[in-house]
Design goal:
Blueprint lengths: L10 H8 L20 H14 L1 H5 L7 E7 L3 E10 L3 H8 L2 H8 L5 E8 L5 E7 L11 E12 L3 E10 L4 E12 L5 E11 L1 H12 L10 E4 L5 E3 L2 H23 L5 H12 L3 H4 L4 H15 L4
Antiparallel strand pairs: 1-2, 2-8, 3-4, 4-5, 5-6, 6-7, 7-8, 9-10
Helix pairs in contact: 7-8, 8-10
């Protein structure tokens, strides 16, 4: 394939690093302009989803009540994670209702090297994520993803946060990111963490070419069957790519919620790395010392906490 669609080995990292996650029961199949459901109705719908998925969550192969789904849409890709977490809704709301908190959790991802908050030109809050195509690339080579940030709903029983970016790198666009959480009881909540983005035909072809060559050994989490030795045959291709990054981002959220306020950044980083290493077939890319050194350098450069 000729320039500008020459396929470097880092293509998959570039595209995967650009993908962000979120949670929303009504986001599936909805257009970016769709009005969100009223909070009581959305909370009821998310609880209904929890009840409907009860058996899948109880029998999850992740060792915890978690379900990961992926979809190829007509214009791009979508990833969704549903999970029961041992955090109350007030705890989740306190942690996730400010864009600065999202910056702290999103930069746990190894490819996310910087995050800035500010005010959008048209008003409203925004955050800009700086993503490198591979973890060993300097932050000066990062591409920027500017997201409009909005708390769509925040009540005692339901939280919804939305982020949208109309343009992305490498022919991607229309990033739609939302997070929904509903209280199950005083100690537990049900999350739906979902995202989608669009890409043009050339990007789709380039991604498929990468995954058929340099990325041919990369797999996702969905088990499609068993091989001749009885081992799981995991999904590959673009859905595998979406699932890998979906899990990475869910683990940033989980590590952030579990660490509590005022925890040193390195403790969160160690927690995220340990969680990712539970799935080495899908997620292992870097050793712990290198990962911590990169994150330490980023904090020192930007003066971002301890």
């Amino acid at each position: 394939m000729s320039s500008p669609f020459h396929l470097p080995a880092s293509w998959g990292h570039t595209l995967a690093g650009a993908i962000l996650l979120a949670v929303s029961v009504h986001a599936l199949g909805a257009s970016p302009d769709s009005a969100p459901a009223p909070a009581p109705a959305a909370a009821q719908a998310l609880r209904a989803t929890h009840q409907r998925m009860g058996a899948k969550l109880a029998q999850s192969g992740f060792g915890r009540p978690l379900q990961l789904d992926s979809t190829e849409t007509p214009n791009g890709l979508q990833g969704d994670i549903y999970a029961v977490v041992d955090h109350s809704l007030p705890e989740i709301s306190a942690a996730l209702m400010e864009p600065s908190r999202w910056c702290e959790l999103l930069t746990l991802h190894v490819n996310n090297r910087r995050c800035r908050t500010g005010t959008a030109p048209q008003g409203g809050e925004m955050l800009t994520l700086f993503v490198v195509r591979r973890y060993d690339k300097p932050v000066e080579q990062a591409f920027q993803l500017p997201f409009a940030y909005r708390v769509a709903s925040a009540t005692q029983e339901y939280l919804s946060v939305e982020m949208n970016a109309p343009k992305g790198p490498l022919g991607t666009s229309n990033y739609r990111v939302t997070l929904e959480a509903v209280a199950l009881d005083g100690q537990r909540s049900f999350l739906h963490f979902s995202y989608s983005y669009d890409h043009n035909m050339m990007v789709r072809m380039a991604t498929q070419a990468y995954l058929a060559t340099f990325g041919r050994n990369k797999v996702g989490f969905t088990v499609m069957g068993r091989d001749a030795d009885g081992q799981p045959d995991y999904i590959r291709g673009t859905r595998g790519l979406v699932e890998r990054n979906a899990m990475r981002y869910f683990l940033t959220l989980d590590a952030y919620l579990s660490s509590g306020a005022g925890v040193p950044a390195e403790r969160r980083e160690r927690s995220w790395f340990a969680a990712a290493e539970q799935y080495p077939r899908q997620l292992h890319e870097i050793d712990l010392d290198t990962y911590l050194a990169i994150k330490r350098e980023d904090r020192q450069r930007d003066g971002a906490g301890r």
